[in-house]
Design brief:
The protein is an alpha/beta fold. It has one domain: TIM Barrel. The chain is 47% helix and 16% strand. The protein contains 10 helices and 8 strands. It has an 8-stranded parallel beta barrel, surrounded by 7 helices. Helix 7 links the parallel strand 5 and strand 6.
């Protein structure tokens, strides 16, 4: 488990995926978001699939990785379509893929389909970091645990709480549950409602090591302010 008290501002920045997923964002908005991500030296930006090439161009040489989404936001595309999305994203310059698993198949108990769904993306883009989004707002704890185990079995690098587009997002309780039900090989990403430094640090203590955030500047500016005051 990460010691939240020992994290520097640079450490915190490298735990943030700066989110640029709102449907109304223009190409200029994406470029501005990439500039912010580069300035704060975050882990990555997470952009819509149509914006991957733009982000890759803007972030080349900055050390900030490019991420995108697959099967977003409902997870209801077929495995074949998700695999095609993954291949196209990597070809455009994506390094990380946040895929939504098939929520309905999980809730219906079709574990074979869920496993095949996640594997399709991982096999289509073996060089990419794959994060599996559960959309916990729609799941029972038992279903979340099952999703953890299936995602790890499929070869996922991260399990992720939410898209940010459901009725609710990340909770401390869900992060703890997910951390307890994957091995040390798999990390936990919290997204949806992680808008303040204190919330982020609480999630770190619960077991998350990566965060989707839109308020990146406010979080890191406050971290720097507190660091300077200390």
């Amino acid at each position: 488990m990460i010691d939240a008290t020992a994290l520097t501002v640079a450490d915190l920045a490298k735990m943030i995926d700066h989110s640029l997923l709102r449907p109304e964002l223009t190409a200029d908005d994406v470029r501005a978001g990439c500039a912010l991500a580069a300035r704060y030296r975050v882990a990555s930006v997470c952009v819509k699939p149509a914006d991957v090439a733009t982000a890759a161009e803007r972030l080349s040489g900055t050390g900030v990785r490019v991420g995108t989404v697959v099967g977003f936001p409902h997870g209801s595309s077929t495995p074949e379509v998700k695999a095609a999305e993954a291949r196209a994203a990597v070809a455009d310059g994506a390094h990380e893929l946040d895929m939504v698993l098939n929520i309905g198949r999980l809730r219906g108990g079709d574990h074979t389909a869920v496993l095949a769904d996640v594997r399709a993306v991982i096999e289509a883009a073996p060089e990419a970091v794959v994060k599996v989004i559960f959309e916990n707002a729609y799941l029972t704890d038992e279903e979340k645990i099952c999703a953890c185990r299936l995602s790890e079995r499929a070869g996922a690098h991260y399990v992720k709480t939410s898209t940010g587009f459901a009725p609710s997002g990340a909770t401390v309780e869900d992060v703890r549950l997910m951390r307890a039900n994957v091995s040390d090989r798999v990390e936990v990403k919290a997204a949806g409602g992680v808008r303040t430094l204190d919330t982020l640090l609480e999630m770190v203590r619960a077991g998350a090591s990566r965060f989707g955030a839109t308020t990146t500047a406010a979080i890191l500016d406050l971290a720097a302010e507190r660091d300077g005051a200390g």
